[in-house]
Amino acid sequence: MTMFVDVGALDDIPRQGARVVRTREGCVAVFRTADDRVFALQDRCPHKGGPLSEGLVHGTSVTCPLHNWVFDMTSGQAQGADEGLVRTYPVRIQNGRIQVSADLIARSTAA
Hints:
Layout: E1 4-9, E2 17-23, E3 26-32, E4 38-42, E5 56-58, E6 61-63, E7 70-72, E8 88-89, E9 91-94, E10 97-101, H1 102-109
């Protein structure tokens, strides 16, 4: 059973926006779609390392701000002719609060 940790209110992230959660393994981008779904992805495009959290959210996709690569936020897979994969993380909304997998947070705070 996956355990989750609260990282903030859904309303803290604008629709079609993102928030960065810093972990020891790197930054994770938590995205909010126009219809209030949330996704958590590694905040680094595999192409040139662009910060996906600064990208354009459209539907369940995000476009990298550096070279316009598009990633499906449900799978992390690059779309179209581009090839690559961004790591995704378990995330959910409970009572208006965003929660990410506790495994990610636990790994981020380990000594």
